[in-house]
Specification:
Blueprint: H1 3-15, E1 33-34, E2 40-44, H2 49-54, H3 60-72, E3 81-84, H4 98-115, E4 119-123, H5 125-131, H6 137-140, E5 144-147, E6 150-155, H7 158-163, H8 168-176, H9 178-190
Parallel strand pairs: 2-3, 2-4, 4-6
Antiparallel strand pairs: 1-3, 5-6
The structure holds iron/sulfur cluster (SF4).
Length: 219
């Protein structure tokens, strides 16, 4: 199967999926959208109200801001792939629960395998928790590290900047680093350099306060 066909198959399966209780709350599953041949994949937390209505990720105000940030980094919505760690909307926009993350990870794992991106950008604390255990996003945002042969960059969720205007310039600055990070990741993978797994140094005061999700293996 081509990457496009794999993504299509995953989307069809997610739309009728009953693997976790979130299917009770969905109007539309939100499998993800974008290019199957991109080098950059963006992973948020879960669909919100408008995403659930439309079946598309990052619509509404947060989606508009994400498009602005992508533009700042020389990217487009169509040129990258955008998805979430869970494909159905958690009620009242609560965080996805560990059993839901665990049930849904098969879709995200297969999407990552099909696309094989050089860079994964996590948007927000929950998707960051997939790759970094017990980190605080306020300490590691905008920084790159390597996980399973791939660069991962943790960013604030665009909605966070809408709720907290002081974060807006921080998020924009973090996104402005992306072009150079993408080049760095491409070079590392093309030269067959196998970067060591790097996790951010996490002194005690940078550990999460216990609200982070349990880190889940994606591979
Ligand atoms: S959130 Fe994921 S695992 Fe749960 S019902 Fe939706 S597609 Fe299935």
């Amino acid at each position: 199967m081509t990457p496009e066909e794999v993504l299509q198959e995953i989307a069809e399966q997610a739309r009728i999926c009953t693997r976790c209780k979130l299917h009770h709350f969905r109007k539309h599953a939100v499998p993800g959208v974008g290019s199957a041949n991109t080098r950059v994949m963006f992973i948020g937390e879960g669909p919100g109200f408008y995403e659930n209505e439309q079946g598309l990720p990052f619509v509404g105000a947060a989606g508009k801001f994400l498009e602005e940030l992508l533009g700042d980094a020389g990217l487009t919505r169509e040129g990258v792939f955008i998805t979430n760690v869970v494909k159905c909307r958690p009620p009242s926009n609560r965080d996805p629960e560990p059993d839901e993350l665990n049930a849904c990870k098969t879709y995200l794992e297969r999407q990552i395998a099909a696309i094989n991106p050089d860079v994964i950008v996590t948007l927000g604390r929950v998707s960051m928790g997939y790759f970094i255990d017990q980190a605080k996003i306020s300490s590691i945002h905008g920084r790159d590290f390597w996980s399973h042969g791939r660069m991962v960059v943790a960013m604030y969720h665009p909605a966070a900047a809408l709720h907290q205007p002081s974060l807006r310039s921080v998020v924009k600055e973090d996104f402005s680093k992306l072009p150079a990070l993408i080049v760095k990741a491409q070079k590392a993978r093309e030269t067959d350099h196998d970067p060591d797994e790097t996790q951010p140094d996490l002194p005690g005061d940078e550990l999460d306060d216990g609200q982070g999700v349990e880190q889940l293996s994606l591979f």
